[in-house]
Amino acid sequence: MLTRRVLIAGAIAGAARAAGAVTVERSLYPAPRPAELWRRAIPTPEELIDGAALGGRVGYAVADARSGELLEARSGLYGMPPASVAKTITCAYGLARLGPGFRFRTRLLAGGPVTAGRLDGDLWLVGGGDPMLVTDDLDAMAAGLAEAGITEVTGRLRVAVGALPAIPEIDPEQPDHVGYNPAVGALNLNFNRVHFEWERTGDTYAIRMDARSETLRPAVTRQRMQVEDRRGPVYTYELRDGIERWTVARAALGDAGSRWLPVRQPALYTAEVLQLLARERGIVLRDPEIGGEPPAGAPVLAEHVSAPLEEILGGMMQWSVNITAEAVGLMATRRAGAPGDSLADSATEMNAWAHRRLGTRRLSFVDHSGLGEDSRVRPVDMVRALVATGSEGQVRSLMKPVIMRDVAGNPVYDHPVSVVGKTGTLNFVSGLSGFATAPSGRDLAFAVFCADLPRRQALSEDEMERPDGGRSYNGRAKALQQALIERWAALYA
Questions:
Q1: Which of 176, 371, 440, 469 is a Cys-bridge partner for 237, taking CB atoms 3.0 to 4.6 Å apart?
Q2: Cα separation of 136 and 133, whole Å?
Q3: Does residue 28 register a pLDDT over 70?
């Protein structure tokens, strides 16, 4: 790790050379050290990579963020798994195709006339792909239904889901129970997760499955949990008779706890929660029917409008939310007129768009979030894309500040190099890409990808959530990424 002295010395040395200092022919003082001596304090890439002892491969590229001049690269033309760094491209894709002011809309429509509070026809719940919809929002829609004077619905609860394709899970290779790998579709509630809570009472457990939000906890029945006497696996999942059936090993529970589990049928999940919230207001809705489209011109009874896309993407880049990336990517593809019936198809459309608009040569995404390990990005292509979005552009403004750290791992808030970027992490895969501003003010665009794929591919499903050595690998990879950034800031300032 370079010291602040070396980084600042590099900037001062550059300024001194530019000033053109004048020397005398003879001096009574000892001869000064060579002007380039400061460079000898900068480790070589090989020294930094060998010191990290990651195994596998490390690839990177760094360029001047304004001119695009490539300054340094290693395995720059080798495709690497980007993990969540992929969301940077999705961010640019969504902004270009949808616009920063785009808003998702979820609506309740009347499928027949309303007379004296009675809807003679079907009530339509129409999904618009909103990845940020939560139970509180749905409760406000149920309240809007009551405020519209509805007290009775004679027809069915119909659910229109044509806005986006129904994707049961982002990456089929992930364990069943991880909440970051939910379904994606036209209706997405609570990031398509259900809250599982347990508490021991004697020899049994009190179990609760609910669609909780900040203020509400409606219990659901389409997601069910059963405790079984076994040591492993911790969870099993089965979709049977329209019910998502989970089991959990008693030995893994302890006295009490909770966790979020993924939902695979989000349209039915959302519809059931709407039924519960409407019933609290005296409005009884029949069991939902999925599919179809509401009648043309059906009046809007209640509507939830999302925040602007720019705000949604800022949250995605901050918290790296997979479902947000997938919903935005799918919607961007649909709005362009491409079918995008699967994540792979939609990602292929995004790859082609990036080739045309960002100057990339060989992007190969299989989704929009980077969760699928088969995605590949060459470091030089990632840097080209960053340069094309602009060093002062909107994508950069939505990136998260990267906190630099000292050798003990403590944050250094006055670090001379300012960095914003997007991280990406899978088991034995770590990436970081973004912009770094050197002490001299020079802006650099960079991408660093680290991956030990043989080690990752050797993991069993039970090992994937917390593999031995995974945390240590990630820590060493992040330290290497910082060291490379410091090297570039000193060397190219």
A1: 176
A2: 8
A3: no
Number of neighbouring beta carbons within 10 Å of residue 144: 16
Region 282-309: mean pLDDT is 98
Angle, helix 322-335 to helix 86-98, in steps of 10 degrees: 40
Strands 157-160 and 123-126, bridge-based pairing:
parallel
Name the DSSP letter for residue 294.
Answer: P
Amino acid identity for residue 401 in this structure: P
Which residues does 424 contact at the CB level (< 8 Å), separation at least 6?
82, 83, 84, 85, 86, 87, 320, 370, 430, 431, 432, 433
H-only helix segments in 59-199:
86-98, 135-147
Architecture of domain 104-306: 3-Layer(bba) Sandwich (3.50)
Q: From CA 129, how far away is CA 2, in angstroms rounded?
A: 46
Q: What is the pTM of this model?
A: 0.92
Q: Are 157 and 125 in contact (CB under 8 A)?
A: yes
Residue 230 CA to its chain's centroid (Å): 34
Q: Of all residues in the chain, what percent carry a pLDDT higher than 70?
A: 92
Please write the tens of the pLDDT for every residue from 445-490.
999 999 999 999 999 988 998 999 999 999 999 999 999 999 999 9
Sketch the domain layout of the chain as residue ranges. 4-82+376-491, 104-306
DSSP string, 301-366: EEEEEPPPHHHHHHHHHHH--HHHHHHHHHHHHHHTT----SHHHHHHHHHHHHHHHH--S--B-S
Q: What are residue 357's phi and psi, to 5 degrees?
A: -95, -30
Instruction: Please provide residue 246's backbone torsions phi and psi, each rounded to the nearest 5 degrees.
Output: -110, 150
